[in-house]
Amino acid sequence: MHQAAYLGLAAAVFLTCSGCTGEKEAAKYRIAVIPKGTTHDFWKSIHAGAVQAARERGNADVIWEGPAKEDQRSEQQQIVERRASEGVNAICLAPCDRTTLVAPVEEALKGGVPVVILDSGLELSDAIKNSDRYLGYVATDNRQGGVEAAKRMLELLKDKKNARVMMIRYQAGSQSTEQRDAGFRETIRTVPSVAFIEAPDEAGPTVDSAQRTAETLLSDQKELDGIFVPNESSTTGVLRALEVLHREGQVKLVGFDSSDILINALRKGEIHGLVLQDPFDMGYQSVNRAIDFLQGKRPAELIKNTNLQVITPDNLDDPKIKPLYARDLQPYLGS
Questions:
Q1: Helix (H) or strand (E) run with residue 179 in it
Q2: For 239, which DSSP code?
Q3: Is the pLDDT of residue 74 over 50?
Q4: Per-residue confidence at 14, pLDDT binned at 50, 70, 90?
Q5: Where are the extended beta strands (E) located within the chain?
Q6: Model confidence pLDDT, tens digit, residues 151-183
Q7: What's the domain range around 234?
Q8: Which of 149, 195, 296, 307 has its C-alpha lying 20 to 30 A from 276's C-alpha?
Q9: CA distance 22 to 29
Q10: How far, in Å, CA of 316 to CA of 318, rounded?
């Protein structure tokens, strides 16, 4: 009888502990992080920052899923809808488009899923603004990024009389790049001696589309002194176009974001300035904001601006700047 009682007690303890383990696993938060795209280095850094936040908190898993290309609005919309219906605990979303993603975000909030917007803004309908599950916006001050890019361009061309500067827009509906365009446009126009040309064609969502656009525009603009483009793929595409036309280094190129290709071109004098964001911190802050809310803490402010730096050949190796473009992502994302 004593042995039977002991076995019964042991079984009860085992079941109780199993229940505890199950409760702990059930309490782990599932955070869907949905980028605009998954190809560019920028998004890989956001992914790494999100993973780091989840690791530090120890109670969350990051579910990383996004469209391959940044113009695939309907694909991103479907991902948001599916993840919300599957019952993730929160969504961190970088919208491909400021308007088409409004409806799926409204539905997610209505269904009880809190949403953090990151990198690129969303038009805030009343349903979003009035929801206590809308957790705000984590991003670069994109307008200021455009301002800083224009300042760099003006510095590069200060000794050039009647300079001609072209801006090639990225893609209509991308709120982040539209803000960068606006900041650049407003600032460059404050100098009447600089002829500002806004290209009629967009760079589009890929390096190849940006290169095709740039080659056509550069063929028409033989006397161009400077070009500004507002993201990684468009900067790479314009760089390639300049190389094909043998005008690299001659036309001052100021772009946005980084990759090994862009950093190497900056070192060689083929690019003359890059506005760098901190995508790692963007992913990190967004996931932390979601977990904080799930644990009962609301964000102190709805808008959180992350770091912004203009890098040039002169400050490229500054140890404070280097993590913005040379962070090792392998510990977070694997090989």
A1: helix 175-188
A2: H
A3: yes
A4: very low
A5: 29-34, 60-64, 90-93, 115-118, 134-139, 164-167, 195-198, 226-228, 252-256, 273-276, 303-305, 309-311
A6: 999 999 999 999 999 999 999 999 999 999 999
A7: 142-276
A8: 195
A9: 14
A10: 6
pLDDT at 25: 46
| Judgement on whether residues 45 and 131 belong to the same structural domain of the protein | yes
CATH number reported for the structural domain that contains residue 263 in this entry: 3.40.50.2300
**Does 95 lie in the same domain as 17?**
yes
Enter the pTM of the model: 0.85
Residues 251 and 125 in one domain: no
Would residue 45 count as lying in a domain? yes
The edge-to-edge listing of strands for the beta sheet with 309-311 is 195-198, 164-167, 226-228, 252-256, 273-276, 309-311
Residue 239 domain-assigned?
yes
What is the residue-wise DSSP string for 71-138?
T-HHHHHHHHHHHHHTT-SEEEE--SSTTTTHHHHHHHHHTT--EEEESS-----HHHHT-TTEEEEE
Cβ–Cβ < 8 Å for 329, 319: no
- The whole-number pLDDT of residue 40 equals 87
| Residue 17 and residue 110 share a domain | yes
Per-residue model confidence (pLDDT) at position 7: 35
Q: How far apart (Å, rounded) are the C-alpha atoms in residues 278 and 284?
A: 10
The residue among 245, 242, 225, 244 whose CA lies nearest residue 234 is 242
Tell me, yes or no, whether 147 and 261 share the same domain. yes
In a domain, 335, yes or no: no
Q: What is the pLDDT of residues 306-315, one digit of tens each?
A: 999 999 999 9
Check residue 274 and give its pLDDT.
98
Tally Cβ neighbours within 10 Å of residue 127: 15
Same domain for 231 and 252: yes
User: Side chain identity at 7, as an amino acid letter?
Assistant: L
The pLDDT of 286-294, averaged and rounded, is 98
Is it the case that residue 128 has pLDDT exceeding 70? yes
- Is 28 strand, coil or helix? coil
The total of structural domains in the chain comes to 2
Among candidates 238, 221, 147, 231, which has minimal Cα distance to 188? 147
32: number of Cβ within 10 Å: 26
Q: Is residue 310 part of a domain?
A: no
Q: Where are the beta strands (DSSP E) in 151-290?
A: 164-167, 195-198, 226-228, 252-256, 273-276
